[in-house]
Write a structure and sequence with these properties.
Elements (H helix, E strand, L loop, with lengths): L3 H25 L4 E2 L4 E4 L4 E5 L3 E6 L5 E7 L7 E4 L4 E6 L8 E7 L3
Antiparallel strand pairs: 1-6, 2-8, 3-4, 4-7, 5-6, 5-8
Length: about 110
Amino acid sequence: MRSPSMHKRMKRITTTASAVMFLSLPLILTGSASAAPQASVPAPPCVKLYESWRYVAASNDCADTMTVAIVYQDGASSLCSTLAPGTMSTVGEGYLGRHGHADHLALCEPS
């Protein structure tokens, strides 16, 4: 039989592991992401940006698949994310992240 202190440690480990997995889930479920972008051309108006304190999401209301990156106010860019028509996905970190607020979405140029 486990001691009460061993039970508390096991519960703490399980809770921590569950929290890490839960918090990583939005990043795992995003559209496909690729290397750092060469993103200079703003995305068309049919690609929309949604920013919260934690995540930035993008929706693609265009007829074509779009590959976009977030350009933050500090000049940094996120990884490129590919969005199929009619989809919405988490594409980066929110304004409490290391780069602050998102400025706009830009199209990623093919490498």
